[in-house]
Design brief:
Layout: H1 14-19, H2 29-36, E1 41-45, H3 52-63, H4 65-70, H5 85-91, E2 97-101, H6 110-127, H7 139-149, H8 155-159, H9 161-173, E3 178-182, H10 186-194, H11 197-212, E4 224-229, E5 245-248, H12 263-272, H13 279-286, E6 289-291, E7 294-296, H14 299-307, H15 323-331, H16 334-344, E8 349-353, H17 366-375, E9 380-386, E10 391-396, H18 400-415, H19 420-432, H20 435-453, H21 461-471, E11 479-487, E12 490-498, E13 505-512, H22 519-532, H23 537-540, E14 546-555, E15 558-567, H24 568-572
Parallel strand pairs: 1-4, 1-5, 2-3, 3-4, 13-14
Antiparallel strand pairs: 6-7, 8-10, 9-10, 11-12, 12-13, 14-15
Helix pairs in contact: 9-11, 10-11, 15-18, 16-21, 19-20
Length: 573
Amino acid sequence: MQARMEFPIGVSDFEEMVQGDYYFIDKTLLIKEIMEDGAKVILLTRPRRFGKTLNLSMIYYFLSENYYNKVNQNLFEGLDISEDTEFCKKHQGKYPVIFISFKDIKELTFPAAYAKITLLIKKLYGNHRYLLEGDLLAQDERDTFMAILNQQANEEHIEASIQSLAEYLTRKFNQFPIILIDEYDTPIQQAYLKKHYDEMAGLMRSLLGQALKDNNPNGRFLEKAIITGITRVGQESIFSGLNNFEVYSVLEEKYGQYFGFTEKEVLKLINDSQQTLPLAPIKEWYNGYQIGKYTLYNPWSIIKCLKNKGTLEWYWVNTSSNDLIAELLTDADITIKLQFEQLLQGEIVERPISKNLVFPEIQTSEEALWSLLLYTGYLKVLSTQRTEFQMLAQLAIPNKEVRFVYNKIIAHWFVIKSSLDSYRKFIESLLSGDINTFKHQLSNYIMQTGSYFDFNKHTPEEVFHIFILGLVVGLKDEYIIQSNRESGIGRLDVIFIPKSNKRQGILIEFKTSENSDSLLIKAQEALKQIKDQQYIETFKQHNVASVLAIGLAFSGKQMELVQEVISIRESEN
């Protein structure tokens, strides 16, 4: 690959990528695998900004007869696919191609979204205006074609538009066309968020269903279809009735290396751009997406990071709103919140997932929630197993960048109910050991945010773990925060290990009580447990001089605490 001078931020057109002055990774062997896949219709699902549009654009330029004849036969010269001369001779520039992307259909209302889709269809037909030449089309077909170009077509003609265009192309070129559909599910996802889901699901079901079925009453008009999206949308049955249909998601290894960057590819980009950057922090921030044997880096974040000379920031998570994820986690029941407490501690959870995503169920079905988080890139899958009733997946947070999203969501639970100043005061009081202020602020948060955690006299102790861990996410840059870990001769509740041994360590032990009158006694028991079980042993390994030990007792929304500063050196004597 010839060295490039710029990183392609926002470039998703393959021709522009190759002919422009850009670094890029050669993924052209995807074309060969796709064309040799026996499936007639292929759905490839990946998180946003993982190269789906660019890959479809690459397939278009390779296969398109119009492009090959009119513009540039040598676009793929020197790339991996060009080494297979027999394959190129058989397939390059041999097909009429329909290429349409729904990635920008994000309107607030269904009429606005429908109008934008009709404009999209108009542009698609405009690209094939040559079909109007001669007597290829019958008069009624010509009238429909012109109605679409003039945005005067009725809904039935819009719904049949891709299928009709495929029929016209088959007639023109005496060759079944390739249909490329990019981000097919974006209109459906956005319609769910904007409350016009049923209308959009119906439109897309008809538009795509007619185009992709090979049992059309008028005959076959499809060589192969490649579709991309984030999820396989269930219930709407967009793909029901399709013969020879395959889905390749993050659960299947096939095509795994073509979406995202492998470590070898990241090292090549660093080397080609002549930057001297350590791989370890880049790996911690942006690596971790698992697809079969392939462990992948987030391509958008890598490109942004290298363009900014190795600056580590939250690039991918800020490319779109995380409001839906925040809403789902906020409204989740306490069982799911407990599982997220495990994930935030770097642990793995085994939860049910589905290969299909039913949007109306994501707020009521645990399976749908975990599936959404997985397919959108907020979790990674380590392994799966099929039980009699469901698929279970071992899930984890992929990397530091995604962990930031969860920390931000949890912190927002508290800030939204109070103020940023109050939150800062709470954090500062814990750091400085100002126990009176800490107790006052903590009590306020219990009263203000109790609805998130369903505090009552029977609330299990683990719920308070989540509550405290949520409150202290702002300390993660300065402390290693762990929960429910072995230390000394017992298992402590929450420990704060300072990253600088000049800071004081912090230990918090919880107790719950059904009787608010015994809160002080319970808090004292918690403090005594810290000392009796020798929990401070962990701090000795980190050369921490002293520890603020806090015993906390809860009874519903009432609490009490006691504290003591323990000198590590004195405890050794």
